[in-house]
Amino acid sequence: MPARPILEYLWIIPLLPLLGSAINGLFGAKWPNKIVNWVALSSTGLSFAFALESAREFFDSGQVLFRKEFFTWIAAGNFRAGFDLQMDQLTVVMVLVVTGVGWLIHIYSTGYMAHEGGYYRFFSYLNLFMFFMLILVLAANYVLLFVGWEGVGLASYLLIGFYFLRKSASDAGKKAFIVNRIGDFGFMLGMFLLFRTFHTLDFNTLFDLKHAAGWQSESWGQFGTFTIACLLLFMGACGKSAQLPLYVWLPDAMEGPTPVSALIHAATMVTAGVYVVARSHVLFTHSETASVVVAIVGCATAFFAATIGLVQTDIKKVLAYSTVSQLGYMFLACGVGAFSAGIFHLMTHAFFKALLFLAAGSVIHAMGGEQDMQKMGGLSKKIKYTFATMLIATLAIIGIPFFAGFFSKDAILLAAFQIPGGHPLYAFGLLTALLTSFYMFRLIFLTFHGKPRYDERKVHVHESPWSMLGPLVVLAVLSFVGGWFALPAFFQGKDYFSGFLAPVFGGNESAEVLGGAAAHTLELTLAFVAVSAALAGLGVAYWLYVKRPSKPGELAKSMKGVYTTLLNKYYVDDLYAAAIVKPLLWISTNVFWKTVDVAGIDGAVNGVADGLTAVGDGVRHTQSGNTRSYAVWVVIGAIVIIAVVFFWTSAGKPVVGMVR
Amino acid sequence: MTAPLAVFFVLAGLAVIGAINLILQKHPIHSALSLIVVMVALAGLYLLMGAEFVAAVQIIVYGGAIMVLFVLVIMLLNAGVEEHTSISKLAGVPGLLLVAALAGFIAATIARSTDVVQAAQQTGDMSSTKGISNMLFRDFVYPFELTSFLILVAIMGAVVLAQREKS
Amino acid sequence: MVPTNYYVILSAVLFGLGVFAFVFKRNIITIFMSIELMLNAVNLAFVAFSRAVGKLDGQVFVLFVIVVAAAEAAVGLGIIILIARNRQSLNVERVDLLKL
Fold first, then answer.
1. How far is the C-alpha of C47 from the C-alpha of A396, rounded, in Å?
2. DSSP state, A83?
3. Intra-chain end-to-end CA distance of chain B, in Å
4. Do residues B90 and B136 both lie within one domain?
5. Least CB-packed of A40, A76, A393, A634 within 10 Å?
6. Which of A449, A440, A448 is nearest to A546 (CA)?
7. A452: how many CB neighbours lie within 10 A of its CB?
8. CB distance from B22 to chain C under 8 Å?
9. Does B99 touch chain A (CB under 8 A)?
């Protein structure tokens, strides 16, 4: 038994979900739900257990980067890409989040999807997703990461379009995959550029700090190798993590079942982009332009999505835009150099956003499938546990002190404030926090308070089974305590989380807390401002939706233009459809189909056939049946032979020689 | 003008006149008789060249068997004067031109062979019959046996083909 | 001595006349006879060259040609008899059943 058994066999962590997926996929069609459950839950659960064990071994061995090459996948010339897995502090965080939250969501799904058709297929896809996501976070080089990257995109497509008989669902799946692909194009170009410059795509070799010290940093406006590579990688991250302008697939992705939205589009897949940026922090810190772009895009997306979320009526769409907005925060953190803050927010967001989605699923389940908030109301007494957990998650997301979101969001806003020129970013971030608080509590009030706006005789509101409530409770606890890693820093102690990640991000965190009391006062002041903003948002929501329920309608009428624009998501989807999709479809139909394929290729092939037939038709006339004509043909043949043999020197030389 | 040359011209003239007559005559029997004249003339030419055996075979086989067969068939079939039809388009003017072209090509080919192939001294002691039979039964025995087989096949073929239909 | 050239030229002339007859005569039997004429012309050339070279190979080959011509004449005339019986005509242009 080797000293660190699990780390030596690190591949077992992704392999177990793959096995579960294969078994369920191949054999699950005939099995009862119980057996499918057992296969799926045990594979993910064991994976989580092994992940815990590997984290323990990692700590025991002194938190040294562990990297193992299992086999060589591609070896072409100087290029080598292997199935190499690594474990470092960042990986520990990601792996535990993915397997832990993933397992909870699997348990939830056994309750939520119990009456759905294609049960085995759902779990097969879900496990497949886990496999790819784990490959993504465990990978030790960009190529293997990209395998996981593409794979989660595939799993996302399969799961969004799970109810494939519904056109809107299959369209949404396609949209997600295609928009992701556009980002992937950028990602691949970035990889190619990195390979061409450094001749390796291995993280260790690439990010070797001794190595990196010799690199030239590129300042603002300088479009050197680092900048372009980072911008391209960021393009991929935009696609995967739904930032401007490639965010349009995420709201549509709500067509998939709610556990899918929770797992993929809240906790794990969409965070892959943040993970990549964090992993490539060495590259980003060498390029000021790229970092600025990341920060600005993140901030803009956060604000933009929050504004759209203000007026949406579908409970899942609100949460979707909220996810886009929070991802914007994470990119803002990475852009200003506070990578560990970004990862911290990633972790806490995983907890409370998954909880929000699962609780929303519970509400939808209670309401018998209704997703429109305007048809809900007054549910707080009827589904107590769901209400309680959702409330905890909401408090976490808006940043109430001691809840998880407070610490992470705070760290981001502090970092944004501290960097030169960061005040506008801070301002928008703060404004977004206010908007977040508003629309989240709008959601709570519309759903749980007030008079029921549905027909109580038709809808029997019932609490969800414990298979669904259990994970909700666990996640609620995590949403509360998940941020306490950074708690001591508040009291001038050590921030355990960023301390933990320090070996990974090294001295690259430009927003390291400045020592001294002045910095601490600044931190407390900013925290106070943020909390006030959150409470202000809560207050406005309370006033509009509880105290004066008719006011929102009046406001909508009076600000009709603004309201309609927000309701239609700034018409971005329509813009894309008209500017990009329509011309492409036109080109496809008229140029490629009608011209190239039908007229060109078919015409050429048919033309050859027709031509041959015509030639045959012409040659037919030599077969006249008349012997005298044949006699003349014989004479012609004789002439030709004599001419060729005796008078065409090159061909007839041998024969002529004999005659002479 | 030496004697052989004069004989040559006479016999050659005879052959050519026979050939032209073959073309000009309308009744096939006249063409057949002209062909016999050509063959006899050629036999004479073979004799002039010193190929006695070939000349003898020419008269016996060609003149005495093949041409007799032709004449017999003409009489059997009651062939009359050939009728004039011109259904074939190719065999009219284009055919004439092509035949002329062929003749021209052959003439040109002969003209191009500049080395005049000289007549070798006849070795009188090698009598052609003996020499030919030597070659025939030693060097060319396989083709010889095959030709006998060929004749057998031809006989059978002719018998089968010309049978009267069983009524 | 008669130069070999003369014999070759005579052979060519006879051959040409044979081709002419082959193309322009309409009676099947006449056409067949023109084929025999062509074969004879070729035989003449063979013998001439055999005399020129001094070997007897040419004459042996002439023998073979005559044998084959005999066989061919036998079978060919058999076929002609059949055609004459079937089509009641010896005009070659009437025999056009192979027309497409």
1. 119
2. E
3. 65
4. no
5. A76
6. A449
7. 14
8. yes
9. yes
State which residue of chain C sits closest to B87, comparing Cα positions: C93
Same domain flag for B92 and B152: no
Three-state DSSP state, B60: helix
For chain B, the domain total comes to: 2
Q: Does B106 reach chain A within 8 Å, measured CB to CB? A: yes
Query: How far apart (Å, rounded) are the C-alpha atoms in residues B144 and B137?
Result: 8
CA atoms within 13 A on the CB side of A542: 6
Judged by a CB distance cut-off of 8 A, whether residue B36 touches chain C is no
Q: Which residue has the tokens 């901030």?
A: A299
Amino acid (one-letter) located at A469: L
pLDDT tens profile A571-601: 888 888 888 888 888 888 888 888 888 888 8
CATH of domain C4-94: 1.10.287.3510
Across the interface, of A620, A624, A628, the residue whose CB is closest to C23 is A628
B90 and B137, same domain (yes or no) = no
| Whether B49 and C17 lie within 8 Å, measured CB to CB | no
**Which ipTM was obtained for this model?**
0.91
Both tokens of residue A159? 């799961």
Q: Would B111 be classed as within a structural domain?
A: no
Q: Which residue has the tokens 């015409």?
A: A603
Residue-wise pLDDT tens digits, B92-123: 788 888 888 888 888 888 777 755 555 554 44
Tokens of B60: 């016996």
Contact A152, A133 (CB under 8 A): yes
Would you put residue A218 in left (φ > 0), alpha (ψ -120 to 50) or beta?
A: beta
Q: In the numeric block, which tokens belong to residue A582?
A: 């329509």
Q: Within A336-422, where are the H helices? A: 339-366, 384-398, 404-418
Residue segments in chain A with a per-residue pLDDT below the cut of 70: 1-4, 209-216, 218, 221, 486-495, 506-519, 649-660
In chain C the first and final C-alpha atoms are separated, in Å, by 55
Tokens linked to A142: 């960009």
Q: What is the pLDDT of residue A506?
A: 65
Residue C27 DSSP one-character state: B
Alpha-carbon span A643 to A636, nearest angstrom: 10
Element (H, E) at A85: strand A79-87
